[in-house]
Amino acid sequence: MMTSRETKNDAQAVIYRTNPETGDFEYLILFRYDQFTGEDQWRLVKGGINDGEVPSEAALREAKEETGLTALFSAITIRDYSYEAFDVRHNVISCLVNAENTHDEDVYPDSREEGGSIIRHAEWVDADTALSHLLFEDERLAVQYGHDYLKNVGVRD
């Protein structure tokens, strides 16, 4: 097992809202080009936690930065996981981010701070589509945990 030289704390945003036509939850996933692999990938919003920030604040900030959505609120921690990439250990806190007030907003993906990824576009999709499209198992688990939480708690903010 490789030993990491650096540790990075990240916040991940599982952005959700209710589809006004179906009443079902939908999730925002990003289609990114990864210059390290040369491949296009479906991913969730994720980024570093700044000094003095708590994970829920970082998830909201990252979601706003990467999507251009402004009416986001109430990030709730749903799971955590770790992985290693390029000699860096990433400790990730996944948060549900409520986007119920964004139905009139367009998504404007922003890749300026993405260090190796270009966000090509974003799509609102149902849970099954998110689960089938997302590249990484940990991201699929974050959506599944979030979806189960929303269904069981009946959140409709």
Tell me the structural class: alpha+beta
CATH level 4 superfamily: Nucleoside Triphosphate Pyrophosphohydrolase
Helix and strand run: EEEEHEEEHH
Q: What number of structural domains do the residues give?
A: 1
Query: How big a fraction of the residues is strand?
Result: 35-45%
Please give the CATH class: Alpha Beta
Helix content: 10-25%
The number of strands is 7
N/C terminus separation: 44 Å
Mean pLDDT: 89
Regarding quaternary structure, what we see is single chain
Count of DSSP helices? 3
CATH architecture annotation: Alpha-Beta Complex
| Topology-level CATH name | Nucleoside Triphosphate Pyrophosphohydrolase
Rg of Cα set? 15 Å
Q: What is the overall shape?
A: globular
Unreliable stretches covering 5 or more consecutive residues: none
Please describe the biggest sheet, giving its number of strands, its sense, and whether it closes into a barrel: 7 strands, mixed
What are its keywords?
3 helices, alpha+beta, 157 residues, globular, 7-stranded mixed sheet
Map the helices and strands.
Elements: E1 6-18, E2 25-34, E3 39-43, E4 45-48, H1 55-67, E5 73-85, E6 88-98, E7 117-126, H2 127-133, H3 137-153
Parallel strand pairs: 1-6
Antiparallel strand pairs: 1-2, 1-4, 2-3, 2-7, 5-6
Brief account:
By secondary structure, this protein is α+β, with helices and mostly antiparallel strands.
Description:
This protein is of the alpha+beta class. It has a single domain, classed as Nucleoside Triphosphate Pyrophosphohydrolase (Alpha-Beta Complex). 24% of the residues lie in helices and 42% in strands. Strands 1, 2, 3, 4, 5, 6 and 7 form a seven-stranded mixed beta sheet that branches. Strand 1 (6-18) and strand 2 form a beta hairpin. Helix 2 (127-133) packs antiparallel against helix 3 (137-153).
